[in-house]
Design goal:
The complex is a heterodimer of chains A (about 240) and B (about 220). Chain A has about 240 residues and is mainly alpha-helical. Chain A is built from seven helices and no strands. Chain A has one domain (about 1-25, about 35-220). Chain A is elongated, with a radius of gyration of 21 Å. In chain A, about 35% of the residues are buried. Chain B is mainly α and about 220 residues long.
């Protein structure tokens, strides 16, 4: 496991550094009409949003589904779902922040009542609700079951966010990058952008692995504390 | 499953009919919230029917929270869960029954609030009647989702505050789609797209509920 963590760390650092170098110095600035240097946000914002909306929520959903399926039910799945959701909160906040940095000069406001922005903010509140729900349940089994069901319910909202740019009139750009025959980014800019997707995906799994280890150790510590408390009571009784 | 659903639905509706909380507390709260929303907007804006669909759904959301909390609370009175477990009732049937009861209660309150929006917010009667089917489907989706979220938050620490935190964001897409379909019925526009979103949400929540309600009952 430490081996995996180390490789993930190396892959994250290498791809992130390469993204930064390519994004800031190698790729040309976009035309003024396309935002000039501001367009360099393309090298982080879509990749962060990809991790926030699809990778992290996908991980939580799959882990929750595996927990609910009796054959694969284990607290490992519950911990993965929880840790992925906690890390995803960071990425959703980063998505909103980088989106606002883009929006201020482009749209003239830090926040617009745009379908994609609003639905992403709603997803953030749902993710925080997931964490609140976990804190409200003391029993690990009950907490795991309820969290798993909520994890699945939250996943129903991800398609709404994905298609929001198509369903509603929105300021946000449509899904041009993944639309066949309509790739609007070319050359070194496209490759840098694709690299950023790998970099942030590696980073997510690196953080997830680290957070999982912390959670695992916290669970072990709680177990030791409980055992100590029971032993202390038994000594008092003896 | 359908027989269980019918038994649970009639049980919930009977509890509601005997307690009369819906009639004397929830519906008046909804009407009051509608009046206060109009006051908050001011007479000029409230009098325009463009604000009415949004206000109607906003008030309905708050009313729905009260109903969801009550509906979930019925199952958490001492001994109820044990009785259900002992009887071996199909959890999917319990979910469908609770959803049916909650939806019927939401429909009843929704009809009163629609009447309120015609009287207080000056929406056209014909347009409101045109919007009625989409309102009923949206409230049905809220009923299905609400039953799941109510079961999720029942019996935890601080359910009164946790329920809105987890439910309101999940209702947001329903609120938007419902408001747009209501507006389209009043002022013209694409009605079927919003119908589709709400219907997919209803089917999605029903499917998830039928599959997973039993997991929540276990806990």
């Amino acid at each position: 496991m430490k081996f995996t963590q180390r490789y993930l760390g190396v892959a994250t650092i290498v791809t992130l550094v390469a993204t930064i170098v390519l994004g800031l110095w190698v790729t040309p600035p976009a035309t003024q009409a396309q935002g000039g240097d501001l367009a360099r946000l393309l090298y982080i914002h879509p990749a962060i949003a990809w991790v926030a909306l699809y990778v992290s929520f996908g991980t939580t959903t799959v882990a929750s589904a595996l927990y609910l399926w009796r054959r694969t039910r284990s607290m490992v799945m519950d911990r993965i779902a929880y840790c992925a959701m906690e890390v995803s909160v960071v990425y959703i906040i980063l998505t909103l922040i980088t989106g606002s940095i883009w929006g201020r000069p482009t749209w003239g406001v830090w926040w617009a009542w745009d379908a994609r922005l609003t639905s992403t903010a709603i997803l953030l509140v749902l993710a925080l609700g997931y964490l609140a729900l976990r804190r409200a349940n003391d029993d690990p089994e009950i907490r795991a079951r309820r969290s798993a069901v909520f994890g699945i319910l939250i996943a129903l909202n991800v398609p709404v966010i994905h298609y929001s740019v198509l369903w509603w009139k929105t300021l946000h750009q449509g899904p041009t990058l993944l639309t066949p025959g309509q790739i609007a980014v070319h050359g070194s800019m496209l490759w840098t952008m694709l690299l950023s997707f790998f970099a942030f995906t590696f980073q997510f799994f690196w953080l997830l692995r680290a957070r999982y280890r912390v959670e695992e150790q916290a669970t072990q510590a709680r177990g030791i504390e409980q055992a100590d408390a029971i032993a202390a009571r038994q000594r008092e009784g003896a | 499953m359908m027989r269980t659903a019918w038994l649970v639905a009639t049980k919930d509706l009977r509890v509601e009919a005997r307690s009369r909380v819906l009639l004397w507390q929830v519906v008046p709260f909804g009407v009051l919230a509608l009046v206060l929303s109009g006051l908050a907007l001011g007479p000029a804006a409230a009098g325009k029917s463009s604000a009415a669909p949004g206000l109607f759904y906003l008030v309905t959301l708050f009313v729905a929270l009260l109903m969801i909390s009550r509906s979930a609370g019925i199952e958490h009175t001492p001994g109820t869960r044990e009785s259900i477990a002992t009887l071996g009732l199909d959890p999917a049937g319990v979910f469908l029954g609770k959803t049916l009861a909650l939806t019927l209660e939401l429909w009843a309150t929704g009809l009163v609030l629609l009447g309120g929006s015609v009287l207080l917010l000056h929406t056209s009667l014909v347009g409101t009647l045109h919007a009625l089917p989409s309102v009923l489907v949206t409230l049905g989706a809220m009923g299905a989702a609400g039953t799941m979220y109510g079961a999720l938050t029942a019996g935890v620490d601080g359910p009164a505050t946790l329920l809105p935190v987890v439910t309101l964001p999940a209702f947001a897409p329903l609120l938007v789609a419902g408001e747009r379909s209501f507006s389209a019925a009043l002022h013209g526009g694409a009605l079927w797209e919003w119908w589709l979103i709400v219907t997919v949400a209803l089917v999605g929540y029903l499917a998830v509920g039928v599959l997973l309600y039993g997991v929540l009952e276990e806990s």
